[in-house]
């Protein structure tokens, strides 16, 4: 079924293409300080699902719900923290050909709500981190390449508030993500 509207030129315009919700999914790995899990630096891994909707033509607004973990092992200290994430995103799809290929610059704001965490130090023991309910806010700036229904994204993640800096570090870090349905 096609949803149509009359334009001033008495031509049918398919408004379904403009105002439809699209399901999205994303799996990402972030390297907080550049080297990630191949060194002693913190690294991040997360997954999210959600929806995108077109605002006008190829401009879209997206929202997802996700789960993220930040991990670090350094000199006998093993730390892990877990978060509920709510990525919000605004982007524009520069589509080529029949739409199977697109370059998508985007910007977003991601609230991270602390769920749980633990730290273990060799020869000293293990204890819970007090991050439950803490609100860490970050900004995302990136580019996504869409190939059919699959995507690969490269994102610069910028900590916004003090809690985010204390949990993830104060430096901008890189996140690489694979997605479906963007």
Report low-confidence residues grouped into runs of 5 or more.
Answer: 1-19, 31-38
Write down the overall geometry: elongated
Beta-strand fraction estimate = over 45%
Give the termini distance in whole angstroms: 22 Å
Helix/strand/pairing class, anyone? mainly beta
- Rounded to the nearest angstrom, the radius of gyration is 20 Å
Query: Which sequence of SSEs, written as H and E, runs from N to C?
Result: EEEEEEEEEEEEHE
- Helix content bin: under 10%
Summed up:
By secondary structure, the chain is mainly beta. Strands 3, 4, 5, 6, 7, 8, 9, 10, 11, 12 and 13 form an 11-stranded antiparallel beta sheet that branches. The chain has a two-stranded antiparallel ribbon with strand order 1-2. It is built from 1 helix and 13 strands.
Overview of this protein structure:
The protein has 182 residues and is mainly beta. Helices cover 4% and strands 66% of the residues. The chain has one helix at 162-168, and strands spanning 4-6, 12-14, 21-31, 43-56, 59-74, 77-85, 88-92, 94-96, 101-121, 125-128, 135-147, 150-159, 173-180. The strands form 2 sheets. Strands 3, 4, 5, 6, 7, 8, 9, 10, 11, 12 and 13 form an 11-stranded antiparallel β-sheet that branches. It has a two-stranded antiparallel ribbon with strand order 1-2. The longest helix is centred in the last third of the chain and has 7 residues, at 162-168. It starts with a strand and ends with a strand. The relative contact order is 0.19. The model is unreliable at 1-19 and 31-38 (pLDDT under 50).
